[in-house]
Amino acid sequence: MSKLQKTLLTASVTLLGLNGCGGGEGVEGPAEALPAVAQGVVAQAAPGCLASDVDTDGDGVCDVVEAQYGTNPQSTDTDGDRLSDYAELFGSGGVNLPALGANARRKDIFIEADYYANRKPTQGALNRIIASFANAPVSNPDGSTGITLHLTLDQQIATADEDLDLNPVWTDFDTIKAKYFAAARAPFFHYMLFANKYSGGTSSGISRGIPAHDFVVTLGGWPTPGGTELQQAGTIMHELGHNIGLRHGGTDNANYKPNYLSIMNYEYQVYGFTVSGTANVFDYSRVRVASFNEAAINEVAAFTPVAPTTEADLAKIGGLRMVNVQVAGNASANLDMNANGSIQTATYARDLNRDGSTATVFPASQHDWLALVFDGAGTIGDSALGTSRALDREQTFLVAPEKVEPCLTADSVVAR
Ligand SMILES: [Zn+2]
């Protein structure tokens, strides 16, 4: 896609007014098709490449140099994080990604975080989420597992520029972003703002769509203004989750699904899970759980794994919550789903997703980490660099972000 095409698409997406966190009625599905990708010319060959050198994938890094760095000469993006090999090896557009720690053979996500003076998140909160991504069950071409989350606090917003209620949220957000975020970073970075409130409410934060490249964390109206470390950490990862394609039900917007073990599920946003005995681990779903019927709850059997997830995988996960209460047991067995202090052998019905029915059947859940979308709805990735992007990459540019509803509010926390 040319820069012009991309600019036009970005403009049309903006005009659609896609503001959001979680709900379902937004624009979804492919927008109208854009012209086929032009086979352009690489602006500049990589250091070490001669004009005559073969560049099979046309990404500006000739095959000889790809061999030196161990990148794939047949892929413009060896590690699949939507940052091109060229940009990760040599920088692009004035942004020196390698100096910032980019690795062309391991997935990277870059986030610039700015904050209001009294809304600065703790380093402990950031470290929790960096660790969660480092522990991600995602494999890389360099043989490692995990994702490197480059999550750094950049600037404090000047007091005069603090807008205590972002309203309309993205209009006011853009005023701040225009001043504090370098436009050259846009193809590579998500932008996160630690603000106070938006739209006059107490929602914990909002993502600019699913997927998207912008999000805000707004814990100003919570009982501890600005949030506790756990609330900050969980909200960062939850809103970032929307940025990288996750919904409240994983693949759909159905919240509180008991068999969806992810902090995208409100039940877990500010608590996380207990994993192998460690409490408050913030994680997207790393297991697949079979369909579950709340009309026939069997506490002894708990949840059933879907391959390749095993019973042993489920058994590591504790700290489960049912209707706002943490319950004993683990996801594999002896799970006290009605929190009455004992494991019942007889089956029973309970409204676990708070929808007024005790007969909901929840579909099998997804493995979130393998479903992430790294391209920020087409905005992340230096699309102008390569000359022969695969069509599947271009297609992701045609999917408009989805409109979403406000995320978890303070009320639900106060009620706890
Ligand atoms: Zn949400």
Give the distinct bound molecules.
Answer: zinc ion
Distance between the termini: 49 Å
Let me know the number of strands.
14
The main β sheet shows up as: 5 strands, mixed
List low-confidence stretches: 1-43, 386-401
Instruction: Provide the helix percentage.
Output: 10-25%
Q: Would you tell me the structural class of the helices and strands?
A: alpha/beta
The topology string of helices and strands comes to HHHEHEEHEEEEHEEEHEEEEHH
The share of residues in extended strands comes to: 5-15%
Gyration radius, in Å: 22 Å
Mean model confidence by pLDDT: 86
Alpha plus pi helix count: 9
Overall geometry comes to globular
Strand numbers in spatial order across the main sheet: 2-1-4-7-6
